[in-house]
Automatic annotation (TrEMBL):
Name of the protein this chain belongs to: Response regulator
InterPro entries: CheY-like_superfamily (IPR011006), Cyclic_di-GMP/3'3'-cGAMP_PDE (IPR052020), Sig_transdc_resp-reg_receiver (IPR001789)
The keyword Phosphoprotein belongs to this UniProt entry's keyword annotation: yes
The species this protein was found in: Sulfidibacter corallicola
GO BP field: phosphorelay signal transduction system
Database matches in CDD domains: REC_HupR-like
Record-annotated Response regulatory domain positions: 4-119
One Pfam family per UniProt: Response_reg
Modified residues (4-aspartylphosphate): 53
Keyword Phosphoprotein assigned: yes
Amino acid sequence: MNRKVLIVDDDPHLLEGCQRQLRKHCDVFTAEGGLAGLRAIQDQGPFEVIVSDFRMPGMDGITFLEKASEVDQGAIHMMLSGQADMEAMIDVVNAGHIFRFLTKPCKAGHLAEAINAGFQQHRLIKAEKELLEMTLNGSIQMLVEVLSITNPIAFNRALRIKKTVLSLGKRLGLNNLWKLEIAAMLSQTGFVSVPNEVVQMGLKGGKLLTREEQMFWDYPKQGSHLVANIPRLEEVAQAIAYQEKQFDGGGYPEDRVKGEEIPMLSRVLKIVLDFDLMKLQGKSKNQIPQLLQAWKSRYDPRVFKAMMDELGFTPKQKMVAVEVTVEELKKGMVIRQNLKTNRGVLLVPAGVELNGLMIMRLRNFAANGALDDKINVLKPLEEET
């Protein structure tokens, strides 16, 4: 038979009567009271239909069905009630929490008829859900395959970041990790119409023309528009739109959104995308944590800490970003940005910790007028005056 209904009531005689009335139509399970009903769902569920009395001692029917929906989310809910409860029941039904309600005493055949309607509703919802899942999975797969063919560089980047993004999501205890995984896989779809050479140049930190740079940094917006057309992925589309947005309000898109206003999925994607960018641009394992530390204001503090833990990096000292003169440079300070001469020659890459020889060299360049006197660095917090 395999059509399962659970009936919950505090009256054992009513439960016995329901079993006799329904046993030819479906598999009937009963429970005396809300707590017993929840145990039945755990031990004998899932059920297609759950019928509950409205007034029960200890736990009323509304509370029971609310708790039941957390465990058996696919079940169709019905309620039995007396005439005195009619006004309250109408409010519950109108709110969309109950499929049907039946008055006590329930006439012979009415309960069976209502439960059969519940089974039909369950089948319809299940079929619609399966169709939606097929549409969702098919649409995602199509976008991923199109990206893999048109822009394999971007496709490979999506594959690279997925594992780190998921690991970070678990560290943060995020719900709906499936959305985070899909956001990672579709994060690069905006590059589908961008020439491969522009994507490669942009990711490697090369010089782009103004038009090419605009095209490159428009990719979150374009990706979000593509994903927004897929059912149930509105949250993912929003995450992709803000995946290059900095926690301090900088980055893309250029709007006033910042901090907690940025979707959490976006905040996770942002730090992982930056991490991947640093690896692509040849930064060493030692440089990357220092660079992330230098850019700390770009990231949600909770996400930043989780990423540091993920990398197995615990800073020995707290660092503070400051601007100093060449003469004020000291050992242990970390260069925040690529340090170049006035002619564009790279002297010290970002993320490098200064030693005595480097400082002497930089002072010599500054003395010859080849280097600006002000330099952005990170220095140990205890050195602040």
